[in-house]
Amino acid sequence: MTSAIHTFTITVDGERLEVAEHELTPAEIMARAGLDPATHYLIEIDGRHQTSLEGKNDQPIHIHEGLKLVSVSTGPTTVS
User: Fold this and answer.
1) CATH no., domain 8-73
2) What's the distance, Cα to Cα, between the start and end of the chain in Å?
């Protein structure tokens, strides 16, 4: 008898990402989303509440269904 692996659907910048882990670091999430952890950090969005994960790239966070994250670039901004 095999048990099915439960996956969670989370979003990073509005893009769906399927993960099976219950905990991931922000750096791991960004790598899976194609973002460079050296030049970005994540913000967790929960309704109107926003939690910055800046400086916490190596600290595991709890993954749950519907977790919403947005990335913020820490690189230089271009001026046109």
Assistant:
1) 3.10.20.30
2) 60
